[in-house]
Amino acid sequence: MRKSAVLALTVAATLGAVIALNGCTSINTQPDEAGLTYDAGPLSNTEFESCVGPSTRNWDGPRDLHFTYPFGQRTYDFSGTEGSDGPPISVVTNDNVTMTVTGVATFALNTDCKTLRQFHERIGIKFQSWMEGGQTADGWRNMLSVYLKQPLDKAMDAVSKKYGYKELYSDPAVKEKWEDEVGMLASEFIKDQAGADFFCQPSYAGAGPCGNAVLTLQAPVPPENIRSALTAEQEAVAQNNAQKQRNETVRTELESIRELVKVLGPDAYVLYKAVEDGKVSVVPVPAGSGINVTPRN
Fold it and tell me: Which CATH superfamily is domain 72-222 in?
């Protein structure tokens, strides 16, 4: 009996020494971060423990796990420029023209505690999309490519099939309507893809209903050869309109000539036109002055 007590004390002392050596763990979130803590100590299974809000420091037990995620406004830039999150998105119109779209999706991760935990356990662990060293890593960008970019691509392609390429490219009213329709459909697809409202409006603060992410899209752009053809077509229309204006001017001038001929007669109109153009010199001679005028040869 005494040996058992000594053995128990020895085990307890050993575990205490191990725990003391391992020390405590901590999480320190910045103003733009939210976190999760999991109890993963040497005497427990890995279980969710608590959420951690922005600008918070918590001390926890040995080997506890901490994960931080972005809090507040974030963007997904698909302009294809250096430093962007992804390439432009291609869409096909109802007249089978492939166009490219660039833009930015502005959103916030839903940091409601229950929702953030679901996001972490369903998606975050799979992509390792938590923040590292205060920065989002490749796992975050890979996750956005699947759960934000793919639904957005699908929504844009579905809506673009309702329109022709000329109106999407050249008509601001059509572009605005197209952008609104894409935003509505993309929100549905993003939620379906993720299985919950994980992405919200930037103003969302982690409580209450989760609104849709905000999209800012540039007008779809057709390939270079089609843009050149559209430019040539517009130039031809402008030239045609200018020629119509010139023709109208000529018709007005001819009508004026007809009216003058009716009044003056053909010969008198010729003389009138010659005088108007400065081809005939006119010298006023008072009546009865007795002045003789000899025309030049």
Answer: Band 7 domain (3.30.479.30)
